[in-house]
Specification:
Elements: E1 16-29, E2 32-38, E3 43-49, H1 55-63, E4 69-78, E5 86-97, H2 111-116, H3 118-121, H4 125-146, E6 151-152, E7 158-159, E8 171-173, E9 179-182, H5 187-197, E10 199-207, E11 220-229, H6 233-254, H7 256-261, H8 267-270, E12 278-280, H9 281-290, H10 303-310, E13 317-323, E14 333-334, E15 337-348, E16 353-360, H11 365-374, H12 383-387, E17 396-402, H13 403-411
The structure holds 4-amino-1,4-dioxobutan-2-aminium adenosine-5'-monophosphate (4AD) and magnesium ion (MG).
């Protein structure tokens, strides 16, 4: 019989189907046995009635253990009390493989125990829901750019230079060419592509040798980075808020059941609509001081500072015009105040902190040479990048959104390690 998936059972009520899956749970009440089967698309209660089954089929129930794999055939019935709203009246069952002593049981396990068994933990209901939300967020991001005239340009992962500072680079030997680095951001290549295509985005894994053990830091994470020729800082903020509104509202709509599984209170997420508040760094500093934090002008905002600022708003807040000294070499300075960079960070509500970092880029050749020197970066690997300022230079701007922080925020998780299938952190590179 043709294979059917649990999420499609609504189209098969009253007919016989075969489900291929794994035992999630089982229980028994006298002459009726229940197996909860999962198949990757949902959970299904399968009912075995002794009187309705050949003895040898009914006996198989006893052999089944948690996570054993099986094929089960039966009639689909509507059952509002069952998970998913349907159940299967079993007619036949065959065991594919018996799982012995599956280590993750319904009892509570510590996070490290679960992270060590991440290859199995992915099967659990919450983890399954998180990965489905992650998948959808990535799709929504692509849909947004693809339907708004952006061209996808993949940037390289092995690169000859730093983008976001030299202290978080992963190095590797690259044949006779010396050292290569795992990319921290595809932005510089995005800028080249924007001069060819106007509106582009890159989307890929990025790497930071971050010595941070916070709930927001991974050493390998995914970032989507739009870059638009002729955009200035304000256009960049317009794009960021329009994009965020789309991604959040479509995820709320399309992944409502997963968010319910995660028991996410979505009231804040429903408010993620344009316009979103825009405050300058100076205003952010005022907020911190009014809240009694002794914050010195000129420093970067720390995790706690971001939380305090974002708590003043019920939507994502855009903080612009940071002190240039805490930002990257490529950011254009504010013509009104040379001490400021035309930077933009978006802070998510509910204490999730920075999810987007971006800026208008320096588009003047001589100024950019000066910045590269000021940051003690080697000139040679940036020669191609400087070319963009030699041949038809234009104002341009872009930003990067971190996928894991976004998933963490939308799912309401307390650590980014659960937002990516196999997290890479300072103390973990397995499984
Ligand atoms: O603010 P960042 O460093 O900006 C850039 O890399 C720019 N070149 C992007 C651009 O303008 N095209 O990083 C952007 C975002 C952060 O806001 C955060 O969401 C995420 O990437 N991010 C991290 N996520 C997880 N772990 C880390 N270690 C991260 N570092 C940055
Ligand atoms: Mg940043």
């Amino acid at each position: 019989m043709a294979r059917t998936y649990i999420e499609d059972l609504g189209n098969h009520v009253g007919t016989d189907v075969t489900i291929h899956g794994w035992v999630y749970n089982k229980r028994s009440s006298g002459k009726i046995k229940f197996i909860i089967v999962r198949d990757g698309t949902g959970l299904l209660q399968c009912v075995m009635v002794k009187a309705a089954l050949p003895e040898e089929v009914f006996e198989k129930f006893g052999e089944l253990t948690q996570e054993s794999s099986l094929k089960v055939t039966g009639t689909v019935k509507e059952e509002p009390r069952a998970p998913g709203g349907y159940e299967l009246e079993v007619k036949d069952l065959s065991i594919i493989h018996i799982a012995v002593d599956y280590p993750i049981t319904p009892k509570e396990h510590g996070v490290e125990f679960l992270m060590d068994r991440r290859h199995l933990w992915l099967r659990s209901t919450r983890q399954h829901a998180i990965m489905r939300v992650r998948h959808y967020i990535i799709k929504a991001i692509r849909d947004y750019f693809d339907s708004n005239g952006f061209t996808l340009i993949d940037s390289p992962i092995l690169t000859p230079n730093a983008v976001e500072g030299t202290t978080t680079l992963f190095e590797t030997e690259y044949f006779d060419l010396g050292k290569a680095f795992l990319t921290q951001s595809g932005q510089l290549y995005g800028e080249a592509a924007a001069m060819a295509h106007g509106k582009v985005y890159c989307f890929g894994p990025t790497f930071r040798a971050e010595k941070s053990k916070t709930r927001r830091h991974l050493t390998e994470f995914w970032m989507v980075e739009p870059e638009v020729a002729f955009n200035d800082l304000n256009d960049n903020m317009d794009l960021a808020e329009d994009f965020l509104e789309y991604v959040v509202s479509s995820t709320l709509k399309e992944k409502a059941s997963e968010l319910e599984t995660l028991e996410r209170d979505t009231s804040y997420l429903e408010k993620v609509k344009k316009p979103m508040p825009r405050i300058s760094y100076d205003e952010a500093v005022d907020i911190l001081r009014k809240k009694g934090i002794d914050f010195e002008w000129g420093g970067d905002l720390g995790g706690t500072d971001e939380t305090v600022i974002s708590e003043q708003f019920d939507k994502p807040v855009m903080v612009h015009r940071y002190p240039a000294q805490v930002k990257a070499f490529y950011m254009k300075r504010d013509p009104e105040n040379e001490k400021l960079a035309l930077a933009l960070d978006v802070l998510a509500p509910e204490g999730y902190g920075e999810i987007i970092g971006g800026s208008q880029r320096e588009d003047d050749y001589d100024t950019l040479v000066e910045r590269i020197n000021e940051h003690n970066l080697p000139m040679e690997p940036f020669e191609w990048y400087l070319d963009l300022r030699k041949y038809g230079s234009v104002p341009h701007a872009g930003f990067g959104l971190g996928i894991e922080r976004t998933v963490s925020w939308i799912c309401g998780l307390d650590h980014v390690r659960e937002t990516v299938p196999f997290a890479r952190m300072i103390y973990r590179n397995t499984p």
